[in-house]
Amino acid sequence: MKITREVKTGILVLAGIALFIFGFNYLKGRNLFEPTDVFYTEFDYNALDKSSAVTVNGNNVGKIEDISYNYETGKTRVAFTVSEKLKFSKSSKIKMYETGFMGGNALAILISHEGEQAKPGDLLESEVEFGLITNLSKNFSGVTDNLDSALKSTDSLMLSVNRLVNDNSEAGLKRTIEELNYTLKSFKTTSNSVNSVISNNDKNITAILEKFKTISSDIAVLTTDLKNANVGATVETLNSTIEKLNSVLATIEKGDGTLGKLLKDDSLYNNLEGATKEMEALLLDIKLHPKRYFRILSKKEIPYTEPTTN
Hints:
With 310 residues, this protein is of the alpha/beta class. Among the domains are: 34-131, Beta Barrel (Elongation Factor Tu (Ef-tu), domain 3), CATH 2.40.30; 265-310, no CATH class. The protein is 56% helix and 17% strand. The chain has helices at residues 5-27, 132-165, 170-200, 202-228, 231-254, 257-264, 266-288, 290-293; strands spanning 36-43, 53-56, 59-70, 75-83, 93-98, 105-110, 123-129. Strand 5 (93-98) and strand 6 (105-110) form a beta hairpin. The termini are far apart.
């Protein structure tokens, strides 16, 4: 069968279109021959574009397919694709992070395998990791406010100092010298008072220091004794004893051993109750027919009869 020129031309055009589509998607990092799954996530704002990467531990594993505004939630919905070979659970998170100092964001899948496995079309929880530039821009306003407040305080202080220095009048100088003399006299009086207190209580201060030295020595000895004491061995012995006691109590609780059977087995109680009843009947019979048990009172044998109860 001879193929016409028109058919050849159509085949070439279709092959060219297919090759163009494949090449275009290949340049975008999308492999048409590899099956992919679509997942969704939402952010409070949009800082992504369709060329943003989807990564796992820094490795590119997918692409953003669509970015749209969700009118119901008021958030930005992002649809992205990953290879169907990538498996993770619904508890995994999608993190948006800055890729460099010059801006640009990408998505990272924080994989978790706890819980139910995620299926195509699931909406995954998201979070945002702010980069260095964003943090600096947020904190810069606070830094400038604090700096402005410090500069205003410094300016007020300098104005006060200038007013004090510029008072060159005789009255201002006299007032300054009088205040300085008054301050020095007050300091001298206080110093004399302190010296007097120290002199009058010199013996007491010495005694206090000696007692403090003795107490420090006693504490050091006590610390050494505690250090030398085999506290660890004592604790281990106590733990071993407690474990053995727990084992004995567990054995008793299970009903094993003599003590366990005494506590758990009802037959002993039933036997004791029956023996008690028989003992009561015997004592009652002895009380009613003493001659039956003491032959010295009667030579005739008296048969046993059940006591009647009224």
